[in-house]
Structures
1.
Amino acid sequence: MVLSTDTNHHRYFLNEIRAAGISITSVIFETSSVQAPFPTGPLYEDEQDLFERQRWVGKLDLAHFDIHEVPNVNLATGRIAALNPDIGVVFGSRRLTPELISCFPAGLINVHRGIAEEYRGLDSDLWAIYHGDWGNIGVTLHMVDAELDAGDIVFQKCMTLSANMRLSHVRAHTSEIAAMGMIDVLKQWQSGALSRRRQTTKGRYYSFMPIDIKRIVHRKFNLHCESLKI
């Protein structure tokens, strides 16, 4: 079972897992989200949407999935329990209650588009760019526990930057890393040999990035990539 929201990168993720031969029993999409109390955009969202749609042609269809929509995934705890899931994947939903987490006897794996041991919380890729931490833009897949983004790591990979990249491309690249990693992790779990490790450090928790800082990050990332030789 996958808990998520309906976006391009989440649709791509679902289709890649299915294409790898892994069965997804059902998908729970949240139709609302927690909003920042200050402006966070728009900035490059239209460019991002176009890039993803062109890059993932034929990989954004939801026809093969059993989709359930709820305003808040925690309100669907009873429905989820009735479906009797074994393992779950979380990608982009709000924080889960202990009651919901307990519905998954084999656990839940969270997709964190960031390096959790450095950047926990929201907009982790953007905060790494803000700090000029070019080597810590990537993806962490970890088990869900009581503390946000602090569970055991089952996969982690940093993103390789190149000269033609723009900030509007980052979500696509990290989502592709996430899909590749999740396929490997779920196959490990199916074979009964899932490898996991405790986080070595506790990353700083970050919240939404305000639009004024995001403008700085937008320019900083694009200029940095333009300076690369490859």
Note: Residues 170-191 form the longest helix (22 residues).
2.
Amino acid sequence: MKQLHTTLGPKSKSELGMILPHEHVFVDLRTPDQPGYAEAEIEDVVRLMAPEIERIKKLGVTALVECSTGGVGRRADIDLAVSLATDFPIVVPTGNYREPWIPEWVRHASEKELEAWMLAELTEQIGETGFQAGWIKLNVGDDGMTALETKILRAASRAAAQTDAVIGSHTIRGRVVMDQLDVIEAEGYRADRFISIHTQEETDFAYNVAVAERGAWIEYDHVGRGEDNEVAELVIKALEAGCGDRLLLSHDRGWFDPALPMGGTPKPYTHLSTVLLPELKRRGIDDGTLMRLTHDNPFEAFAR
């Protein structure tokens, strides 16, 4: 039976409802060599972010996917603390961001060492947290993969192939997504276990469809950040193109930022529930389709 691997342990589909597939609890976009990188008091993060979690719990959201990975301040211990404080499961990734957010140890590690690291986090635990990584999060350059980013992707593909973990990548251009899928398949893994994060940034809609037709997930994660009418129209366009079984929706919002005083001011994870879904329903999208987009698809994408 497939399960979602979370901070609160594995969760079956019957235990879950709506899932937000791309959010952040804690992010540090400074590079890892900067003073104070990824440093924060856990209680400060809980104080700021627990109310945001409680808001979406009241709206029926049952889990979210943390998309902060290595290189941009992943703090699995903080995710766990927020999760325990709210009794709310969070799915945390292994993997690493793109250059120049790559720590020195990742830069110098071999493919086998990177594969072993990701595999251990997927099958044992992240650090001393007691819970497993739920997926692999990567990022590549907007105009194509560097040699280092390709090395990380190859290692990720091998670790994922042994665990059925999904690989998600912050990738702006559709043609680069296609290149990533070529690498994944060359390593013996499958396109249907890949998420094209920020698909909306590829303005050539034909690439959105091509990625979905190849079997990968496409993710429109600008809900509440993009103009509501345009977001709704894009979702409907994807549904009409037959992409509904491969489409994910989220906000890419939050978060506690240790570079800002007291972590800054988080942006809520509520817009999908309170604005976009009602708007899609008003435009004729039926409840079954909305359930698929917000319940079924996120579980199928991330469960293993």
Note: The CA atoms of residues 17 and 133 lie 20 Å apart.
3.
Amino acid sequence: MGQGCRQQGVELIEGYAMRDHIHMLLMIPPPQYSVANTIGFLKGKSAIRIFREYPQVKRNFTGRHFWARGYCVSTVGLDEQMIRAYIKNQEREERRQEQLRLAGL
């Protein structure tokens, strides 16, 4: 994602990949690109790169889309530090959830 962001002039401030989704805090320079154009570009470029680097993945997506059609977006103002912390803590939270599942809780 970082290379695609740089190509668009978008700054990837924070990011974390989960098993089934990705959290990203991006700074998109206005009014150069819309959020929809930026996300579409990043999804397209990253799917192409993943398929090139991991050809076995492409076999599993024949006739299907790699990324979901939608996305969730929110503007950030005064809450930027809270959102950064949330993204950074995703790995720890994912481990905690897995431990709870293994413990049968």
Note: DSSP finds five helices and two strands in the chain.
4.
Amino acid sequence: MALKISSKIVDYSVVKVDEPAQTVEPTETAIQLEEMHEKLKRPEFLEGSTYKIKTPTSEHAIYVTINDVILNHGSDHEIRRPFEIFINSKNMEHYQWISALTLIISAVFRKGGDCTFLVEELRSVFDPKGGYMKRGGRWMPSLVAEIGDVLEQHLKRIGMMVDEMDEHQRAYLEQKRAEFVAIKPQGQAAADCDDSTAAYPPGAQMCGKCHTQAAVQMDGCMTCLNCGDSKCG
């Protein structure tokens, strides 16, 4: 007689020929967790975030919108996963490759699994015309690399990536920054001054690790006030 298995198999045992078969009653109902996969249909409503990118190479800003799907809603296993991405701007110069990029990234999102590798892949793209310095003193090799930077921010917000530095390390860097400013006080820039290095002390050098103009001489060695990289280890 055929038996229909209506629940998930959580255990099994081999019955010998000379032993009678025993019926095992399940003690706990298996929890079916919903995971991201390519056959998941798009819900009518998605929650998302929009990020603004303003580069010195264009007078028009670029807006990156990433929409998330919420899996296992209302349970202890509720998670957010990126589902689609849209990139819009009044500048139509990059329309063709930006449209292709949004389709490819969205397809990777819906495929499921680990999509964090996209951050490094996008950041490794260099513009042959040269990069640009962001407000705050960080150098960007290309617009594509900054889109990767935005993607990293979003993945950290939804818990798919974590910060390399914890709150104690950040507090330490803030303390070092305050000590540096106290030793070498600088005049404040005007409120309307578009100084790309205003986020860090004037005279800071470019950090070779995070490409931010935030490395200063402290305690006898160069220390980055953005990522914490230090020649002293």
Note: Helices lie at 95-111, 117-123, 143-157, 167-183.
